[in-house]
Amino acid sequence: MNKEQFIELGLTEEQANKAAAASQDELKGFIPKARFDEVNDTKKKLEKDLGERDGQLDELKKSAGASEDLKKQIETLQSENKTAADQYAADLKGLTLTNAIKSALNGKVHDEGLVAGLFDREKLVIDGDKIVGLDDQLKGLQESKAFLFKTDDTKAPGFKVGNDGKPTPVDPNKPISLQDAVTAHYQTK
To answer: Which pTM was predicted?
Structure first.
């Protein structure tokens, strides 16, 4: 949990700071759910691909009639396997980029799905555990579409009902009610 969530639960700011720091320390050894899902999906996909290839080899053994037919089948299977490997690499890249974007946006925006769709994935490059270009695009979106991002500023511009519970300052030169305004208008004439 973060500081704002602890404050919403009724803790003082000092208590919220300590609780947020303790929460961060506690989570240091944990793997983010997005990363776990990514690895788990990869494992499932590899197991499925392995099963398909084993089935293909069994079919190949059964149909080992003419050597020409066998060569054609091998070439066909090799091209299908290459296509499947390319598709898998593209899917893995997409999943990695999606998880990195969602992780970068976590708790910072009003609608994570909407903002994630604004990233130009073609300009993002996976370099080990880092996504090159992600921070630049995030900063650009924060500047150009600031309304999509949450602000920590409690003095944000706009109309606040009830003036946050503070009394409205009274100006002795300005009337307070309609009756006072009408009275003041006729008294000045």
So the answer is: 0.46
